[in-house]
């Protein structure tokens, strides 16, 4: 029996062009204990059902935003989701403790190479620094943040044969989260999960 219930909130506005995120979403759908939600499919007109989304949050222990990095942020529907679902009195404020102690992380793809995401790189900031608004969202709502899982160089990942291993790493991560076999403390401390994933996963891997 799964020890944790994991919620993957997937946001990709151009799925027919997705070479990375769609395989990740498909994999998540086949793991016991994981609920994978395609936000653009469920809300094509952005008419988000706040009650349903809040109930989903209440029913899960680990929350994951899965998305391609668009202009150093999430696709628009994830911002809309945050604006509407994370209400005062539910997610924050003196009475807003619904998300307290839940785990949170981002699983994303980025078009640029890994060396572009550093202080002296093309993008001037690390991937974790670019996600600081989301990290602060997690802090304000009482969730325990973990560093992101990122696939860099997403535009060439398929031709370079890097997607299969990344999908397997993603499966291993999700199974570890479901089975509560993950080093959450260190996952907060590192810059990104990728180089440390095998060390962070405790016990048997898939």
UniProtKB/TrEMBL annotation:
Domain Flavodoxin-like fold: 5-173
A family per Pfam: Flavodoxin_2
A GO molecular-function annotation: FMN binding
Record has Endoplasmic reticulum as a keyword: no
UniProt entry keywords in alphabetical sequence: Oxidoreductase
Family annotation (InterPro entries): Flavodoxin_fold (IPR003680), Flavoprotein-like_sf (IPR029039), KefG/KefF (IPR046980)
Protein name from the UniProt record: Potassium transporter KefG
Classification lineage: Bacteria, Pseudomonadati, Pseudomonadota, Gammaproteobacteria, Vibrionales
